[in-house]
Amino acid sequence: MRYQLFYWPGIQGRGEYVRLALEQAGADYADVARDERGMAAMVKMMEAGGGTPPFAPPFLKAGRLVIGQTANILLYLGSRHGLAPKAEAGRLWVHQLQLTVADFVLEIHDTHHPLGPSLYYEDQRQPAKKRSAEFWNERVPKYLGYFERLSQEHGGFYLTGRRLTYVDLSLFQIVEGLRYAFPKRMTAFEREIPGLVALHDRVAIRPNIKAYLCSDRRIAFNEDGIFRHYKELDL
Amino acid sequence: MRYQLFYWPGIQGRGEYVRLALEQAGADYADVARDERGMAAMVKMMEAGGGTPPFAPPFLKAGRLVIGQTANILLYLGSRHGLAPKAEAGRLWVHQLQLTVADFVLEIHDTHHPLGPSLYYEDQRQPAKKRSAEFWNERVPKYLGYFERLSQEHGGFYLTGRRLTYVDLSLFQIVEGLRYAFPKRMTAFEREIPGLVALHDRVAIRPNIKAYLCSDRRIAFNEDGIFRHYKELDL
Q1: Predicted-complex ipTM score
Q2: What's the whole-model pTM score?
Q3: How far is A206 from chain B (nearest CA, A)?
Q4: CATH of domain A3-80
């Protein structure tokens, strides 16, 4: 079966967590909205009456199923492609971790959009400075400290043990993204999270991930995505 | 099996979505942290080494399982207590809707905490005014318009059809909460969402929910929770 991934073209965004899972799995998929016709199809699917219209991209078409919400898509893909444990306890645990990553991603987005997603960054620069400072003082240590502790407890291999899961791929992306958006702050912070940095490096050299990162399927970070580099926020 | 729910005492917060599901199911549960000893046990479980420590409350102890993240807990409870379809497609769809509710809940929280969760409301009043205005202009119509459309399409009964699911309970709470936090704005907006208001009313008269709402197990809304009533944000 060929999957169809629907996500905004031009940014990594939330779609990237799905792309990384599809790439690691070696799954056959089309990144549909990267051409104009696909983009029109995506909008049509969200507006269509009946069925299970997603609230927002990303969503995945898998045969007759249309699955929305990043963590929900990973829940589905994880069990099909060996990217999560099969047993209920492990499946729920990995999903729980992914939902915690999702919460963190929202807070990352809010560093440049504290007054809300509908206003331009340029209209909220001062609040963004305050929110970014608070983010690095309080939230990054709390979230990444939690994941660091888990990575240490499991012998410093992957987050939940010796097998890679989709949450490892997402944490790779978190480290990559924070390095792009906040290079100064992240450089200073990385000494606090040696386990996560090692995990990041372990993911980066997986053959499928390495090939993906070098391909033009990987969109470059930019200032329309979740991880944005604004010098004034990276003090 | 007696469930143990762990959540901050004194607020409805995210724990409320779980409480509503447990109450509707008539499940046997203890709301552990509502006394001091339970509160200490909750903190200990988050700090404990090994196992599957949750990042934050709410979490549910179900036998040997410790399940964190509100939507994940509902995923687990839904399949056990007839509050979600058994088949995969329906189960994923209801979970997807719940994750969209979770995103909305975070945006509701941000109306009074745009600069981040670690600062006091009093230190972010002006940004909170801007964020609240943007929330009501852009985000409420988008989110509630989406759920309204779904409720209409399914004949105006429950959100996904004739059977109640956990997402209906959560939408009941959203309507209740917005009425508490923003009584003026919500009164004006309710004419846009007749289907959701009817759904809210249908949930409110379910015998188990009605009994719960009248009991002292239901904590009153207050200004420490997610839905806070600040007059200056409700213009």
Answers
A1: 0.97
A2: 0.97
A3: 26
A4: 3.40.30.10
